[in-house]
Amino acid sequence: FASLRDFVPTVELLSQAYGWRILGLIVFGQWIVKGLVWGYCDVAMDFLFREYAVPGPRMQICRAIATLPWAIKPLFGLVSDVAPLFGYKRGPH
């Protein structure tokens, strides 16, 4: 979407075509799946850290490294929209 002005009519069009309930279900379902996956990973990390007796400060460093891709994802998206990365520039959606 080029701007928020383009986003709202698109959502309205999709809502008219498919109904707001199915759109809500898709958004909610995707949110739930992401939450479950992250929750599972978080529990697995806790188990592994406990199993290997990782000290607290090192555990925080490991968690920071594990979540770094999610933290820089918006920045990477902005940069890839503006400048070509590895010879490719993202096209309009």
Radius of gyration: 19 Å
Give the averaged pLDDT, no decimals.
84
* N- to C-terminal distance: 6 Å
Question: What is the tally of beta strands?
Answer: 0
Judged by helices, strands and strand pairing, the structural class is mainly alpha
Q: What is the strand content?
A: under 5%
Q: What is the 3D form?
A: flat
Largest sheet: none
Q: Give the ordered list of helices and strands.
A: HHH
The tally of helices reads 3
**What percentage of residues falls in helices of 4 or more residues?**
over 70%
Low-confidence stretches: none
How is this structure best described in words?
This protein is an all-alpha fold and 93 residues long. The protein has 3 helices and no strands. The chain has helices spanning 4-18, 20-51, 56-82. α1 packs across α2. The protein starts with a helix and ends in an 11-residue tail after the last helix. The model has no long low-confidence stretch (mean pLDDT 84).
Write the topology of this structure:
Elements: H1 4-18, H2 20-51, H3 56-82
Could you give a short description of this structure?
It contains three helices and no strands. It has helices spanning 4-18, 20-51, 56-82.
Keywords:
single chain, 93 residues, mainly alpha, 80% helix
